[in-house]
Amino acid sequence: MDVLVVDHPLAQTRLTAMRRTETESGVFRASLHELTTMVVYEAARLFAIEKYPIETPVARTEGTRLANPPLIVPVLRAGLGMADAALALLPESSMGFVGLARDEETHEPRAYMESLPADLSGQPVLVLDPMLATGGSLIHCCELLADRGCTDIIVCCVLAAPEGVERLRNSGLPLRLITASIDEGLNEKAYIVPGLGDAGDRQFGGM
Ligand code: PRP
Ligand code: URA
Q: At the top level of its lineage, which domain of life is listed (predicted)?
C-alpha cells in the first residue's frame, strides 16, 4: 500500500493548531478545512487526467481535465469537516456518506448510516476521515466500497497511528493513504498519541 505523508510547513502549522488543547472549535474547524485542501491537493496527483482540445483567445491548444472525478465519501461525523474543502477542489465530484461511531469499550466501529451508489466499479473514491487510529473504521468503510465493486480507493487523513497504517496495509483492500502525520502510537483507550483528542468532539462538541 502506498503511503504519502504531507509534511509541508503550512500543513504542519495547521496540524499544530489542531493538536493544541486550547484551540477552540472554530479555529479547529478552520484549520481542518485548510489542511484538507493541502492533503486533497496532494492526493489529486494520483488522479488520471486526460487532454482535450480547447481554444484560448489566441490559439488552439490542449486543455487538461480529470478523466474520472472521484466520488467523495466523508466518514461521519469527523470527516464532515473535510467535505467542503474536498468538494471545492473537486467541483465535478459527487458525494456519498458513511456514518460510523467507535464503541468506547471495544473500539470497534458501529455503522449507523450509509448512503453510497450501488455500483462503484470503475469509480475512484476519495475517503475523508481525519483520524486513522486502530483502523477499524476505515476498514469498515473501505469494505463497503469494495463490496460495491470499487477497486481504487484513496484515503485522506490528518493523523494516523502506525497500528492503523499496518492494519490497512494488511487488509488487502485496494487503497492508498495520504496523511499529514504518522504519530507515535495508540494509548490504552485507542486514542492517537500525541494526537489531537477526539476529532468529532473538537469540531462539533461532545455527544
Ligand atoms: C473517530 C474518527 C474515525 C475513528 C478512528 O470517529 O473520526 O472515524 O474514530 O478510529 P479507529 O481507526 O480506531 O476506528 P468516532 O468513532 O469517534 O466518531 P465521530 O466521528 O462521530 O466522533
Ligand atoms: N478517534 C479520534 O477522534 N481520535 C483518536 O485519537 C482516535 C480515534
A: Bacteria
The atom of ligand 1 lying closest to the CA of 107 is 13
The domain limits of the chain are 3-50+67-204
- In CATH terms, the fold of domain 3-50+67-204 is Rossmann fold (3.40.50)
What's the whole-model pTM score? 0.97
What pLDDT was estimated at residue 71? 98
DSSP letter at 87? H
Q: What is the mean pLDDT of the chain?
A: 97
Tell me whether 0.95 is exceeded by the ipTM.
Answer: yes
Q: Provide the 3-class DSSP secondary structure of residue 135.
A: coil
Q: What is the DSSP letter of 45?
A: G
Indicate if 202 belongs to the active site.
no
Atom in ligand 1 nearest the alpha carbon of residue 164:
12
Ligand found nearest the CA of 186: 2
Beta bridge partners of 79: none
Integer Cα distance of 67 and 165 in angstroms = 29
State the Cα–Cα distance between residues 139 and 151, nearest whole angstrom. 14
**d(CA 21, ligand 2 centre) in Å:** 14
Confidence of residue 206 (pLDDT cuts 50, 70, 90): confident
Helix, strand or coil, per DSSP, at residue 165: helix
